[in-house]
């Protein structure tokens, strides 16, 4: 069986976003494993309009070339890990919009999350899991939460440190998340093929 391809979806497009630092850290952890291939899927690279189609692509295809390009890219992967910034107790608007644009394409694949913020984006990750279920994704149990004091060790508004400052705390969660994603990617890929 081929290694599953996992997209690390960066769910913020702000110029001052923090996501790049933990995304690079997780990508390095994934590169040290031999059971998955992970690459970044950056929402900045897609000029997605605000969802304004007559219906979801689950009901009718999109005619917007930018949306179609995004859907085709999302379809290349066997699973997803979302970098989740918590905005007002939920996910970013740009992430919700991206999920809506490719509703059908995410289906029957696992998803997990790496949340960061005051409470490790726990509330946003919970909302994301509900959105994932509605899009027929398979939310996995494990997640990474970079919260409070640990977050301030690495965030530019805090100590402006490196991810190595939280490596010992976050690595067990990262390994558990990737273990879950790999297992479910194999199971769902086999089920889709059948």
TrEMBL record:
Residues 4-144 form the NADPH-dependent FMN reductase-like domain. PANTHER family: CHROMATE REDUCTASE (PTHR30543), NAD(P)H-DEPENDENT FMN REDUCTASE LOT6 (PTHR30543:SF21). This is FMN reductase.
